[in-house]
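Convert to structure. Protein one:
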Amino acid sequence: MEAKALTSYRPYWAKRFGTAPFLPMSRAEMEQLGWDSCDVILVTGDAYIDHPSFAMALLGRLLEAQGFRVGIISQPDWQSAEDFRKLGKPNLYFGITAGNMDSMVNRYTADKKIRSDDAYTPNAEANKRPDRAVIVYSQRAREAFPDANIVIGGIEASLRRIAHYDYWSDKVRRSILPDSKADLLIFGNAERAVVELTHRLSKGEPIEHIRDLRGSSFMVPKGWKPSEEWIEVDSTTVDMPGRVDPHPDPYAMEPAKSAAGQAAINDAGAQPIRIVTAAERVAARKAARSHQVVRLPSYDRVNEDPVRYAHASRTFHLESNPGNARALIQGNGDRDVWLNPPPIPLTTAEMDHVYGLPYARKPHPAYGDAKIPAWDMIRFSVNIMRGCFGGCTFCSITEHEGRIIQSRSEESILHEIEEIRDKTPGFTGIISDLGGPTANMYRLACKDKKIEESCRRLSCVYPGICENLNTDHAPLIQLYRKARTLPGIKKVLIGSGLRYDLAVQSPEYVKELVTHHVGGYLKIAPEHTEEGPLSKMMKPGIGTYERFKQMFEKYSKEAGKEQYLIPYFIAAHPGTTDEDMLELALWLKRYDFRLDQVQTFLPTPLALATAMWHTEKNPLRKVTRESEGVPIVRGGRQRRLHKAFLRYHDPENWPLLREALKAMGRADLIGNGKKHLIPAWQPGGDSSSRTGRRPPAATSARRPSPQRRR
């Protein structure tokens, strides 16, 4: 994989204006900089914090380094188009994003309740962004300037680039492109596409002619191809699903047609799914992959047929490796959504360039003394890498950042630590995190580039660690050692989640981490203890966690430190039964874990676990109507029960748990002894629990466990 370097472009003429202290958010700031207009205006649902952890700041500074004048419209009033006019019409385009989080995840809990605060807003004020912010912002920008170019991106747009199940409306929604009326969607980490797009537009190339950017998506007429040499292949040649239609009724007067099958016939732009011969598959593989586009089942077909949805989800994920991914196409009414292959990852030098730009490293002065929780969380932390090859099915990193790890150089990271030390107000000498999506994947990659580029596995570490994966933690150990010896640095903590199945491959790393970089507690995410849900999460068995726990405790004792693991678990994940949650609750009790906060599974667009939740099929394997069914927890009561098992110690959950345990034939777990999960008595004289008396205080009181989650 080769790509034009980010730093190889000739700067745009406006570079003469120099570097802005902050990207302007008002006309007055533009005038102070000597600007009469902006080349690009970035619209975001977050407060503007000029720091590389925030996408709009990162892309804005990157474009500024290319010579473009970039303005920011932060958290605009979406009730009218007025806020979208305040910087004038951009010369090149509006770049629109919901912010660092999906707007629906940001605004709603897993139980679909509106959150009372927003970490990305001054003073955590809620309701400062609309639902489906990308669509709303795009419509308002179009209303403000009908002839302006609209480019959408960020995680919200990325996760909605094709037809997707939407948890909040409980239906399959079409691609965000036709709803937003955007000219172009840029998905994933957008540096390459944004820089190339902006330079091409600045040279006068119409946006509707730009159809070859990796990491971009757009609407095209039915039958459109970039050139005659392109070949369209059906998704069944990628992953032959077998029989996806029901058996016909032999006693019917005429052959029965399923609704999905009829939709396939009526869908003029797609081929019906069929058994493909071996000769056809060989021929398809021999065709030039770089000029192949894989047709997914259309929006209408996946909307009507869960099996086809699961098949489309599996195909989408199989075409996610930048080294071998093909373009994808999906019918949306009388048009198609075209997706180019994912972006080529940044090199270490390019990562250093992006993170080394002249960020102010603080919120825009317009916010005054307002507290922005997201800023307080990351201002003393350093992002050392991006991407994750774990492939956890409930996580959106795969769909957005991809599986290939992109790491910064040691020099770049150490320099940022010094920048924090010297320039960030309130720094006390403690770095809160050296991490990223996963704390210990820094510089880990496939041992052979050719193997990496041809691989189509969904995970490098499930069901076991791939023999081609380099798991050497030496570069990370060296980075930790150098970071903590910098002048003025008292301690370097690791706050990002740790992949413990990788960590146990390097006892030296675990010792280094435990001895020097744990502040009493270390976050870790086994997610569950039972094989059913773990197999649907693509997470290792609990035995691996036990191995890591033994090493953690051993090295903590050798260091003379009292330190504890803080485990994270998910309730109601696809593949989880009531019995699985009971076993997890018994495991928690055995180790005296009393969790204060727990996570209930939240289906996010495009995730594999979401496909399971919607279809009750397992897209980790080939999908047919007879293939493996996945147990799903949909009802509110059962979701509450699964969450209650995680908080078995909370008296408010005892009535629900008693009822469930009796129904499961496990009333033996109700009682006042150590072997029981919950007591027979209920505080406050609850009439539902008068079958038992409260035991004496000496046997009921328990010393708070230091292992409880804080």
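Protein two, convert as well:
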Amino acid sequence: MTETPAMPRRLRARRERASEHLFVVLVAIACGLAGAAGAIVLRALVHGFSAAFFGDPLPAIASLLAPGHGEPEMMGATAPWWRRMLAPALGGAIVGPFLFWLARESRGHGVPAVMEAIARRGGVIRPRVVAITTLASAITIGSGGSAGREGPIVQIGSAIGSAIGQLLRLPTRQVRTLVACGAAAGIAATFNAPIAGALFAAEVILLDFATARLTPIVIASVVATVVSRAVLGDNPSFIVPSWELVSPWELVAYGALGIFAGFLGVGFGSALHGAERAFERLRIPDPMKASLGGLLVGAIGTQLPHVFGSGYGTINAALESQLPLVLLTLLIIAKIAATSLTLGSGGTGGVFAPALVIGAVAGGAFGDVVHSVFPETTAGSGAYALVAMGAVLAATSHAPITAIIMIFELTQSIRIIPPLMTSCVIATLVAIYLRRESIYTMKLVERGLDLMAEKDPNVLRSLFVRDLLDRDAERVPADASFQEVLDLVVRSSHAEFFVVDAKGALVGAISVTQLRRLLFEEETLRHVVVAADLIETERPVLRESDDLDSALQLFSQAGVAELAVVAENDPSRLIGALHERDVLEAYHRTMLERDLSGGLSARVGLAGRTPEMDLGGGFVLAEVEAPRAFAGHSLREIDLRARHGVQVLLMRAPSSGGGAVRVPTADDCVQLGDVLVVAGPAAAVQRLERAEWGI
């Protein structure tokens, strides 16, 4: 074969791709090892703090490395009532100030912070999050806070992956992948479920099943599972009962269970979100809120210690049908309340395990009732508890694939797949119908980050003709003479003229381009031609409800600069026009706003002022806190653009968790503490930062 000059280049490119692939695999292995180590350390710390808050530490710590799961059957069950009351409050008193001063992003259930870091900061997470989240979550859970280890270990593993990516100076797409690798490793090591860990990272964290990303995630997940099994033993996380589908008709019951689980998942998410909002509005210092939340959890735990900690002991009791119906019913409400209080007040922990607990007790109660009514055709309550674990998890996270695979990995039974899929899919559909956001994305949407909208790269689909409608379209009577039309063209800045009949109905359009071709015959035509003779009748029209993507396609097909906009129910009634230049300007402006809200504005609220961004030509982009003089006035009243040449691009209201970033209108009122993203001359922006301007 004759060698061509292109062959060596192709060979080098192939070798470079192979080297890059090998490099990604090695880094994924490192993430898997680090994630597994983080999961093991967190488990040890939870056991240690649990023993310190509730009893003798030696048996609990010694049990950690014994074969099996090593979870206490029920945290604080043997402790006196006053200790159960005060332990969560003491834990909150430690964690609240600790997180407030060192890493506020570690508060709550962890996963939303990781999703926000991937979407807005290219996967960059502060390395300090590893140590702070590990210690804070161990204290929260060990002191009896109602939360799971999974959320913190996702954040810990993700922070480790991010730190590795930053240390090696990898490109953004690879840093994001490593963040997901760390998250997958944490879930896999915690549940001894490598497939579920990888799917959770792809389905929830990345929202992306691309093969190039999934390969390193799977590798990290498998490595973490191998390490976890070597240290903790190859045992399932829960005591899974023997399971069988007693009758095909039982699938109807599992479908009804899915509906029940869907409502529960939405209720859990709404309760947690409501608790977060309530504690944000509470007028006490932020560092004290976690202690108050812990005290309320302790009050619940004095009567129902089942709500303390991750609740794995409660899950095992429900799976073995050891809990009476009344207790199962009470625990549904109590666990939702305790978890909402723990995380809403500023503690740190995950919602993964609480969702499993809620599913187990709800499924146990549902199964108890169904089995008592149809004893011959249904399984015992433990089977329904097992399936409901997956269904509630699917409903809260909107991740049915992860839920199905996780329960399958726990049971290792292919026979559970039909009822499990039935319940999980129905639960997810019900949850999405009732509320678009999952428990992980609710807070993100409040902060101005809609991941579903971000996935659609065509921003014009979210903008509509009514947003840019020009109601002063040029109208020409159908009987206007050629000379009158020419006179109108001279006076007007429009490129299209819409011809209407005596009743005002649209009959066609005349373009400047068409008239230009007829100017040489002006003398001949001025007395014999009227506007109706010049019109194009096949011109497409728009309605106010049409999106700008459709409008841009029509502009391309028609080859004109303006299109008529007609009434929704009357295509002959002209209400205005849309200009192609306005559509293009809206596109560029929206893309700029999206980039800003995903970049500079994402850092608003971090300690210290973010650096200015030099735009060239003496102009800068910066974030400044609104001067006190602006408070209570609208942007129209302040009028920074006219007075000082400074444009307000974005605005964020202050809140303890970070207010929602929004694109302001002229009527938006500035409140004390608002943060403004502004662009303008450097000197003017500096004067604004020094609050030298008044109203």
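The two ends are 80 Å apart (CA to CA). The chain has four domains: 21-232, 250-453, 465-585, 599-689.
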